[in-house]
Amino acid sequence: MNGGITLNESPFRARHNQPLSERALKELYKDGTPAWIARPKEFRQYAVDCYLADKEESDAMVAQYRMEDQEELTDRKARLVNVMGTRDFIEKLRSNGVHCFTYQAPPGEGTPKELLNTVGLWCEVPTERNLGHEWNGHKHQYICYLQIPAMHEWSLLRLDDHKLPIGEAHRGWRTVLSQLILKGVLTEEKAHLIFGKPSGPQSLKYRRTLHDFRNGRYPNERREKANI
Question: What stretches in the chain show pLDDT beneath 70?
Answer without folding.
Answer: 1-68, 108-109, 111, 114, 218-228
